[in-house]
Amino acid sequence: MATLPYADYLDDRSITRPEPARVGEGEPSRLRLTGFASIAVPIAGAGLPLALFVPQLYATQFGLSLATIGFIFLLGRIWDVSADPLVGALSDRTRSRFGRRRPWIAAGGLLFGLSSALLFFPPAALVTPAYLGAALFFFYLGWSMIEIPASAWAGELSRHYHGRTRVVSYQALLRAIGLLAVLVLPTILDQVEPGNGTLKLQLVGGFIIATLIPSLVLTLFSVPEPPVPATPPVRQSFWRATSVIFSDRLLLRVLASDAVVTAGQSIRASLIVFFAVWYMGLPAWASGLYLLQFIFGVAAAPIWLRIGTRIGKRQAAISGEIAQAAINIGLLFVFPGGLPLLLALTIAQGLTQGSGNLMLRAMVADVADAHRLRTGHDRTGLFFSVFALSAKLGPAIGIGIALPLIAWLGFAAGPHNDPTALEGLKTVFALGPALAHIIATLIIWRFPLDEAAHAEIRRALDQRDAIPA
Predict the structure, then answer these.
(1) Cβ pair 274, 413 in contact under 8 A
(2) Which sequence ranges are marked TM in the entry (predicted)?
């Protein structure tokens, strides 16, 4: 099948551009879109307790060594990263009476629910390293089988440039609610039964399973799955699929920008407790700052939907990243005991939180459309699986840089740090994320796939799909 040279295609300004469709025109209603996005609540709610509570409980209550737990989680993360592109590629190739994405999400939901019960409600008599390893194996597999097809489905749910921003905004809002819940519930429990790690783990696990069942039904049946593209499914090896990914420069730019943004956010998250306790001298606010940021983050998704719809995804992403860079630089002017300015900057951080991630996620489906026009093959699921890697690569980069750097500057967790070491902590906490947001901005500064270009790509795809195979 003949394909258009993508670069020439975008640069041809003589083409008459179709008028972009208005947001909401022919799109799912708010209620249906909320139901579709609701699976983000248990998925997002599972990540934080998995890192915070599971290792602690399995070490203290069941006697597994920290080295063993660390090794098992490392293997689990490697498996998780490997499973994403496999699930993405296979879901692209799936053809069934129920659709491409639904069978994967349904099977993944069952696997995710059962493995969550094993992880968060472990029978003491059966807990061994093998038990933890097997539970994590199926947990991560179920997670990938839900998240990757659901993300691809979200990208296919709207064909319009701003419609996709609307879809991912709802996903971001529900994701923020899930994260907020798993931050609030343990905080409340600490006021009633402080130090009860087992009950805390079961409370969070119960929340995940209780929200999984209705959200899975809503996601599967709230909206129809779009028709399968007329192009045949791609059958190729995993390594060939990987080479295809790394040959798409637009996808690499979106992926690199998101990885840098996530790395900056991880620097802030990994140092915020140290900064609040040892630099600011405000131990009572160690968890409260993170919670406050997330509360305002919940309110941020609808705001950034309006901004992205008005000025475009690229411009909204750039605006959000510049704002976050400025907010983090403002932390240089916070001094010990200066709570009012710190609270103001934390609220501002929450309101801009995820702006870049949100817009970049919405760009992935546009890039997949451009790829399908250029190559003739639909790889939407594969593209979203690769984009998911940045959420896992970013924290590794951020933590891997931030913690060794503050240690090199002389800081150690504890009260005995000299003023130079504390200033080093503050500098990394402020400028590390700021630099990451600036780099992310530069990566997408001249991103060519804007609203007009995407409208023309969709017109060409619709014309080609209308021709009988």
Answers:
(1) yes
(2) 31-52, 58-76, 103-121, 127-146, 167-189, 201-221, 250-278, 284-305, 381-408, 428-449
Q: Using one digit for the tens of pLDDT, what is the confidence trace for 388-440?
A: 777 777 776 777 788 888 889 998 877 888 999 999 999 999 999 999 999 99
Q: Whole-prediction pTM value? A: 0.72
Q: What is the DSSP letter of 337?
A: T
Same domain for 259 and 202: no
- What's the confidence (pLDDT) of residue 7? 46
Whether 178 and 285 map to the same domain: the answer is no
How far is CA 351 from each of CA 61, 298, 303, 346, 435, rounded to the nearest angstrom? 39, 8, 8, 9, 19
238 is written with which tokens? 């995993």
Q: In this structure, are residues 87 and 144 in contact, taking their beta carbons and an 8 Å threshold?
A: yes
Same domain, 120 and 168: yes
214 and 251 assigned to the same domain: no
Domain count, the chain: 2
Name the range with the highest mean pLDDT among 61-70, 233-242, 248-257, 411-420. Answer: 248-257
Output the six-digit token pair for 312.
């475009």
The set of residues, in sequence order, having a beta carbon less than 8 Å from that of 412 and lying 6+ positions away, is 421
Domain that holds residue 95: 30-225
- 184 and 298 co-located in one domain: no
Orientation angle between helical segments 197-221 and 40-52, nearest 10 degrees: 160
Query: Is the domain of 221 the same as that of 250?
Result: no
Domain boundary among 194, 225, 256: 225
